[in-house]
Each structure stands twice: as structure tokens, then as C-alpha cells.
Amino acid sequence: xxxxxxxxxxxxxxxxxxxxxxxxxxxxxxxxxxxxxxxxxxxxxxxxxxxxxxxxxxxxxxxxxxxxxxxxxxxxxxxxxxxxxxxxxxxxxxxxxxxxxxxxxxxxxxxxxxxxxxxxxxxxxxxxxxxxxxxxxxxxxxxxxxx
Length: 147
What we know:
Blueprint: H1 2-21, H2 31-39, E1 41-44, E2 50-53, E3 56-57, E4 65-69, E5 72-76, E6 86-92, E7 95-101, E8 106-111, E9 117-124, E10 138-146
Antiparallel strand pairs: 1-4, 1-10, 2-3, 2-10, 4-5, 5-6, 6-7, 7-8, 8-9, 9-10
């Protein structure tokens, strides 16, 4: 009789521990992880997009493709003085609306609510240490569409 009194509570305790261990231990994604998921895609100019330098729209970029992955990027049909062929990026401190390319350029990032349009704004400096990009200097706005 004494054995039954100990046996049933022990079974209930064991069943409770097993059920508790089966719970979902995965933490919800962080804000940074969510932003990375939104950015990770192939982005094109498409029919809805555009590239402007200052107030002047440019069709020189109509075939531009930007592929973003977790902390790296590649470009196709680019002007390397403005967008290098490949590189890495990181968030600027805790600001998920700004990224910094590995060349030091800080880019303001805006993804619309349906996550299908990405707007990138940045100022290309007058020249780098080689003096090569003086002709590419200016304020750029890229409006890209998720492919």
C-alpha cells in the first residue's frame, strides 16, 4: 500500500517533466533577425523602381541587380564606383534602418510594409584615396523591387 502511494505521485511528476521538456524552447526572432530576413533577397529596378542622383533620374541603372544575404551583397550591371561588385555590410550600431558597407559608406534603408520595395539613400563622397570617384559623387536614391 505504501508503495502505491509513492508510485502514483512519482508517475505524475515524471509525466509532468516529460511534457514540460516537449515545450517550444526556441526564442522568438530578434528585431535584427527580422530585418535581416526582410533584406535578404534579390532586388531589381524593375518597372516600379528608379535610381536618382540628386534630383536627376538615371536610366543607366535599369538592369542593376542587388542581391543581399546575411551581411554580404553582390551586384550585377553596376557602376562599381557607386556600388562595388561584392562586399559585406553591417547594421550601424543598433539602428536597423542604416547599414554600413565594408567600404565605410552608410546607407539609409527603408522597406515598405509589404516588404516588396526597398529604398536605399546614401551620399557618395567626392573621391576616395585614389581620387577615382569624383564623377560619381552625389546623393543617390535607389528604389528597388523584390524579384
